[in-house]
Amino acid sequence: MEYLPIFLNIRDQRCLVVGGGEIASRKAAMLMRAGARVHVVAPHIDIPLLEKLQHADGSFRQGNYSAADLDGMALVIAATDDEAVNRAVYDDARVRQLPVNVVDAPALCSFVFPSIVDRSPLVIAVSSAGKSPVLARLLRARLETTIPATYGRLADICGEFRPLAKQTFPDTNARRAFWERELQGQFAELVYSGRENEARAHLQNAFAASGPQQAGEVYLVGAGPGDPDLLTFRALRLMQQADVVVHDRLVSTPILDLCRRDAEFIYVGKARAAHALPQDDINALLVTLAKQGKRVCRLKGGDPFIFGRGGEEIEELAAAGIPFQVVPGITSANGCSAYAGIPLTHRDYAQSVRFVTGHLKDGSPELPWSELIHEHQTLVLYMGLVGLERICDQLVAHGMSADMPVALVSQGTTPQQKVVTGTLADIASKVADSGIRAPTLTIVGRVVELREKLNWFAGADAPA
After folding, report:
1. Of 19, 258, 288, 427, which is most buried by a Cβ count within 10 Å?
2. Is the pLDDT of residue 452 over 70?
3. DSSP of 25-40, one letter per residue?
4. Catalytic residue (choose from 46, 82, 156, 270)
5. How far apart are the first and last CA of the chain?
6. 166/175 Cα distance (integer angstroms)
7. Rounded distance, CA 186 to CA 411, Å?
8. Do 445 and 379 meet the contact criterion of CB atoms below 8 Å apart?
9. How far apart are CA 29 and CA 300, in angstroms?
10. What pLDDT score does 145 carry?
11. Residue 108 and residue 89: Cα distance in Å, rounded?
């Protein structure tokens, strides 16, 4: 370990920045965020830096650096492009045993600035000891994506309850177990969703009970159309803390792999005429698992409220008094159209878009055909592979032009994505010849003409 990682309290302390340019301005801003009183010395000081100093009650001296500038300072930064000045600052600071950092000169630093994930009062610092700042920033970016912005508020509220926690649980191990449970359970989720008063009340009740809370919870999570990169941060967090994962057929294996490894996985997928579990039984299963005190992730392909029957499931949960959360997902229409290079709306082609299900009931599509016939509207059909020929015939019979462009996307957003394009007159035969399979999404409209120009997906498919 080349540097000892510490957090230094510089609030209301005087800190010196030597240099007046852009880099000096960035360093001064970081010191100000930590509450320091910043003093800048430089022959020339940029206006943005002057404005920062004035706003934060800082000070400056326009002129050349001298050792006297170190008087009364708690920390020193040299950010000039003059190596002799930087060396002088370092040498003078070391004589006075002051922490000193010379920008882009690791050999002249008694401390280095890490890449910071700021969820104050929770702060995470990542350092490469000055050897690869870009690598440290990339790692910080990864951490930013996995740590909710509300972690700071979570830490603040935990701080409020520390005295009560010590009083309720004198034993250190019992206290630690309590916080581990609450920080992965309903208390934390209430804070994440901005319901802080409810979170405080929950903790009060938990302390009064002096034991684990038995109520379970259900997370209704949209897993998106298939690409794991399209998951939301919140979805990923809940997937990784659930005790049980109840998932559909349309949830891809790479997404399931991101769930908590030791969770119980229950498959309840539905294919055409082959349901692993009827919907009423799925609803009852969610209630039963939650009543057992389990955290249940109900993982659905796409978005749970767009042809996902999520509304039916939360109706059942609400009736049973089960706490639940709903996490929207990127619906297949958005994901598949984007990966296929087809904008759903475009000023010159379509000013509206309509989502309908192409699923057949009793052998015939039940759609309001006359309402779907608009020249400047994009029509998106979910689950329409089996009835594609009948759907095309009905659209033409009700007045849509037979040369209307159509695209059918199979296994969209995944490496197996395939796209077949054509018109209402010939798309059914093209799809039959292609051998593609469900899940599919059908896009009908002039926007399909833009595919050859806008397609960026680096998959194996090509415009038909």
Report:
1. 19
2. yes
3. HHHHHHHHHTT-EEEE
4. 270
5. 58
6. 7
7. 35
8. yes
9. 44
10. 82
11. 9
Q: Which residues pair with 220 in a beta bridge?
A: 298, 326
Q: What is the pLDDT of residues 175-215, one digit of tens each?
A: 877 887 888 888 998 998 899 999 999 999 988 886 544 56
Query: Hey, what's the torsion of the CAs at 60, 66, 70, 72, to 10 degrees?
Result: -70
pLDDT digits (tens, 9 = 90+) for 286-340: 999 999 888 899 999 999 999 889 999 999 999 999 999 999 999 999 999 999 9
Report the b/e string of 37-58 with b at 16+ CB within 10 A. Answer: bbbbbbeebbeebbebbeebeb
Peptide bond into 439 cis (omega under 30): yes
Q: CB-side exposure of 271: number of CA atoms within 13 Å?
A: 6
The DSSP letter of residue 113 is P
Backbone angles phi, psi at 381, to 5 degrees: -115, 120
Phi, psi (5° rounding) for residue 438?
Answer: -65, 155
Structure tokens at 300: 């659905």
98 token code pair: 């002051």
Place of tokens 């997370």: 219
Rounded Cα gap, residues 321 and 295, in angstroms: 15
| Cis bond upstream, residue 121 (ω within 30) | yes
Q: What is the pLDDT of residue 144?
A: 87
Determine contact, residues 213/231, Cβ cutoff 8 Å.
no
* Contact of 77 with 69, CB cutoff 8 Å: no
What tokens does 439 get? 């899940």
Active site residue 27: no
**Beta-bridge mates of residue 123:** 118
Mean pLDDT of the chain: 90
Beta carbons within 10 angstroms of residue 341's beta carbon: 18
Helix-then-strand count for the chain, H and E: 17, 19
Q: How far apart are CA 59 and CA 50, in angstroms?
A: 9
Using pLDDT thresholds of 50, 70 and 90, give the confidence band for residue 460: very low
The answer to whether the CB of 32 falls within 8 A of the CB of 58 is yes
Assigned token pair, 458: 């680096």
Instruction: Work out the number of other CB atoms within 10 angstroms of the CB of residue 338.
Output: 19
Catalytically annotated residue among 69, 92, 227, 248: 248
Q: Return the pLDDT at 457.
A: 54
**Of 159, 178, 160, which is closest to residue 170 (Cα–Cα)?**
178
Domains and CATH numbers, the chain: 14-113 (3.40.50.720), 151-209 (no CATH), 217-330 (3.40.1010.10), 333-454 (3.30.950.10)
Does the predicted model carry a pTM greater than 0.90? no
DSSP state of 185: S
C-alpha gyration radius of the chain: 30
- Catalytic residue flag (residue 361): no
